[in-house]
Write a structure and sequence with these properties.
The chain is an alpha/beta fold. Helix content is 33%, strand content 18%. It is globular. The N terminus is likely disordered.
């Protein structure tokens, strides 16, 4: 993306408020958008949502190509001095969401679901503390359920996400500068697939001229990028099998994973919780949804294997038969309803590219310069998610400032019941166990 175009797109975000004495009026914002569109700026929409405590979320949709769904979402959650007037914030964090999610569903769920307070979420927590939080909605979040022809997604991949993230980050930096927060580089964080993208982004960032680099530091959350030790050889072998399966599906013309079946399970759990499940005979609809969340590692069908032998989304409570009957760190129905907002599709290419990185089954373009990444890194994980194997990536980085936190609440050997993949974002204790350490690290850097 040419710098000139970045500046043009960033100009649209002047509607977020310059460092003036009084808020601008809605009409002037609309005029800026109209004039910008006339000049070819690819902004489809820009909205502001007021949040409690003097915060706001700005949500834009930016067109990045000529196709119907060649667009990304761009979010900013920040304190304000007045409507459309962001307060100055010395530190900016850019977040990339993971699979089957959007920026809001994982970082600001109260905007999506009334089950969660408007103050819920990592984005609100950090913004309330003075961090300028930005983030992206990846292209596939805009693809609707009724879509049947996915050929337009054939050439989308992790590299596409890296390119889109770079554009979004440049816009964020320019807007921050124009609104009084400086043009400094950003910290980058991501959860799950988002961690893959920020690692790939940082890898590519090392090859740009220093003046054009965007990364100030990394906070990867809950995902392995590379596996390196003899102890994880079996995980690499399993990743190689998954790579072959997903690549064959892609080569045969299957370009997406569908989340429709999982969403259907959640719908049944809410509509008829005590009825027999058509998915797992012998269980009720509610038990099936809880099984999907709390015993995720048991849902993989051979020859596919889970990322770790104990991998699960959330820690559950158990009934007398050893079946999950609730969540240890949250309300199940609230999470079920939030899940209905998850995007229905994402990329098959993401699946095989992730497993190519994990297994080294084939050469990947996203790990050629890991040793040249020298920015500070703080990895955050869950014992019941990707666990300690995710730390092996850190050994490949050139950073001298590398720290980690694996949330473990149970003794070794009980990972299948311990803190899960999504608990770091949705757990009732996540603010204390995960978010506060992230904030402390940001403040220290």
């Amino acid at each position: 993306m040419r710098i000139e175009k970045m500046w043009r797109i960033a100009g649209l975000f002047l509607t977020l408020g310059l460092a003036t004495q009084a808020p601008a009026h809605a009409g002037s914002h609309q005029e800026v958008w109209r004039q910008a569109m006339d000049r070819g700026h690819a902004l489809e929409s820009l909205t502001r949502t007021a949040l409690p405590g003097g915060l706001a979320e700005y949500n834009a949709v930016v067109r990045v190509g000529s196709g119907e769904f060649d667009k990304i979402g761009l979010h900013r959650v920040v304190r304000e001095v007045g409507p459309w007037l962001p307060a100055r914030a010395s530190k900016g964090l850019f977040f990339v969401h993971g699979s089957a999610s959007t920026f809001n569903t994982v970082l600001l769920p109260g905007v999506v679901s009334s089950d969660f307070p408007a103050t819920q979420g990592l984005a609100y927590f950090l913004a309330k503390a003075g961090i300028d939080v930005w983030g992206i909605d990846l292209r596939w979040t805009f693809v609707p359920l009724e879509t049947t022809d996915f050929s337009f997604m054939r050439d989308w991949n992790i590299g596409t996400h890296v390119s889109d993230t770079r554009l979004a980050a440049k816009v964020a930096r320019i807007v921050r500068g124009l609104t009084g927060s400086g043009f400094d580089r950003l910290f980058f964080s991501g959860h799950s697939l988002g961690t893959e993208i920020i690692y790939a982004f940082a890898d590519a960032d090392t090859q740009r001229p220093r003046a054009e680099r965007d990364v100030k530091g990394l906070i990867p959350i809950e995902m392995s990028y590379k596996l390196t030790s003899p102890e994880t050889q079996s995980l690499r072998d399993q990743a190689a099998v998954r790579y072959q399966i997903y690549k064959q599906l892609y080569d045969s013309g299957t370009y997406v994973f569908s989340n429709a079946a999982a969403i259907g399970v959640l719908q049944l759990a809410l509509a008829a919780p005590d009825d027999p499940s058509p998915v797992l005979p012998g269980l009720t609809n509610r038990q099936t949804a809880l099984f999907l969340l709390c015993d995720t590692y048991l849902t993989s069908q051979p020859p596919l294997a889970p990322y770790t032998p104990w991998y699960h989304y959330t820690a559950g409570t158990l009934d007398a038969n050893g079946l999950p009957n609730g969540l240890r760190f949250g309300d199940a129905d609230s999470l079920f309803r939030l899940g209905l907002s998850f995007p229905p599709y994402q990329l098959m290419s993401e699946g095989y590219e992730i497993d190519a990185l994990l297994s080294d089954a084939v050469d990947s373009p996203y790990d050629d310069h890991l040793g040249e990444i020298t920015v500070p890194v703080f990895y955050v994980g869950a014992a019941g998610g990707f666990g300690e194997p995710a730390l092996e990536t850190l050994s490949l980085l050139g950073s001298t400032d590398k720290t980690s936190l694996i949330v473990r609440l149970l003794p070794p050997g009980q990972e299948a019941f311990d803190y899960g993949h999504l608990d770091a974002l949705f757990g009732s204790n996540a603010p204390d166990l995960v978010w506060k350490p992230i904030l402390a690290w940001l403040r220290a850097h």
